Structures are given as structure tokens and as C-alpha cells.
Amino acid sequence: MKENVYDNSKFFDAYGRMYRSIHGLDGAGEWHELRKLFPDFKGKRVLDIGCGYGWHCTYAAEQGASYVLGIDISERMLEIAGEKNKSPNVEYQKMAMEDIDFTEDSFDIVISSLALHYSPDFGDICRKVYKSLSGGGSFVFSVEHPIFTAHGLQAWIYDVNGEIYHWPVDRYFEQGRRDTTFLGEKVAKYHRTITGYVKGLTQAGFVLMDIVEPVPVDAE
């Protein structure tokens, strides 16, 4: 059974209070770099994997996409997306990312924001995405940085004086499932090294054009 913590009422309420949930793309710490990687959306067919509230779907439509399909496993997420991000060029569909099975040449651009680290088989998703893209199509996505997911604790280690001591990364090369805590709930994520991500892409047939590790920007 595919896991879906986002339809847990307590978790979803906490998620809705996050800065990025309230402020949309401008509240997302990686957005200032992610949007630079996007190709021209004008006239393109777009798939958004794990679309959440639909912020990226709306952005693609506003940039001229002819059609955008946002998929997500969470009914609650899709309900909010339908309320917050309505557009005649955007359609939302309940679907787990592992269930993607589109025909060849279904999309020109596939995007995903902070969703793919929830799937146990990144390589399989890459193969399915590659199949669905038109010739010369683009796959642009963001994931939690491997340093963040490495240990599984996803929290600072403090010294005896209560001061930050270090961030644990001692399981970095051990790829696989991490049972962690996010917004007070138990959540399963899947850690991969940067090599793991790159090989998942190249073995599916993709050519890597760019990779960026965003750093925070000063708030205005």
C-alpha cells in the first residue's frame, strides 16, 4: 500500500500552517533557483508530479502552457488545489507517482517539487517519465537534499550546553527508507545519494543539463 500521510487530518492541518503553504511559491525556499531551471512553458503540455496545492501548475499555465495535469495521491491536497489554483488549462487527478503510466509523447515538460523522495523506486519513475515525454522534452524536479535525509533523524544534534553541535550525515551512503518525524507525525522518506539520483536519470535515458543545490537568500 502506498503511504499518504497528507490525508492525516492532524498532519494536513499542520502542513497548512507552514510558511510555504500560506505564501505559495514565494514562500518556498528553493523557488528562487528552481524557476531558473524551467524551460519555456509557452504552448507546452505539462505534468506536475505530486502537485500538492497546485502552485506550480498555476505558474506553468500563467507562463503559457497549453495544458497542465497535476497529480497527487492526497485527496485533501487536490481539494485545496482546486480551490486555490483554478485555471481553464489545469486539470487535477488523484494518482500516486508510482502509478504513472502515460503513453509516449503525452507531455513536453514534467515537473515535480519535493515529492520524489517519498517514493521507494526513483529509477522506475524516471523510466516512466522518460517514456511519457516528447522528443527533446524536459524533466525538472526538486527533492530534499541528501544531506537532509541521510541520517533519518532530520534534526540537529546538540551538545551538553544545549548548543548546536552538528547535523548527522553518518548514514549518507546507506540508501533506502528513513522513518522520520515531520510536523509531529511519523513519515517515511527514501534517502538517495546524489550519485543515486544522477544514475536514476541517466539509466532511464535522460541527459543531465544542470544540477543546483540552493542556499537560503536573505529575506527582503
Sequence-ordered SSE layout with sheet pairings:
Layout: H1 9-16, H2 19-23, H3 31-37, E1 45-49, H4 55-62, E2 67-72, H5 75-84, E3 90-94, E4 107-113, H6 122-132, E5 133-142, H7 146-149, E6 157-158, E7 164-166, E8 176-182, E9 185-191, H8 194-204
Parallel strand pairs: 1-2, 1-4, 2-3, 4-5
Antiparallel strand pairs: 6-7, 8-9
What does this structure look like?
The protein is an alpha/beta fold and 220 residues long. It has one domain (5-150, 191-204): Vaccinia Virus protein VP39 (Rossmann fold, 3-Layer(aba) Sandwich), CATH 3.40.50.150. 29% of the residues lie in helices and 24% in strands. It has 8 helices and 9 strands. It has helices at 9-16, 19-23, 31-37, 55-62, 75-84, 122-132, 146-149, 194-204, and strands at 45-49, 67-72, 90-94, 107-113, 133-142, 157-158, 164-166, 176-182, 185-191. The strands form 3 sheets. A 5-stranded parallel sheet has the order 3-2-1-4-5. The chain has a two-stranded antiparallel ribbon with strand order 6-7. α6 packs parallel to α8 (194-204). The relative contact order is 0.15.
How many helices? The count is 8
Morphology: globular
According to DSSP, the number of beta strands is 9
Unreliable residue runs: none
CATH architecture: 3-Layer(aba) Sandwich
Name of the CATH homologous superfamily:
Vaccinia Virus protein VP39
User: What's the order of the H and E elements?
Assistant: HHHEHEHEEHEHEEEEH
Largest sheet, strands/sense/barrel = 5 strands, parallel
- CATH top-level class: Alpha Beta
In total, how many domains does the architecture comprise?
1
How far is the first residue's CA from the last residue's CA? 44 Å
Report the radius of gyration as a whole number of Å: 18 Å
Mean pLDDT across every amino acid position: 93
Beta-sheet strand percentage?
15-25%
Q: How do the strands of the widest beta sheet line up side by side?
A: 3-2-1-4-5
Helix content: 25-40%
SS content category: alpha/beta
| CATH topology title | Rossmann fold
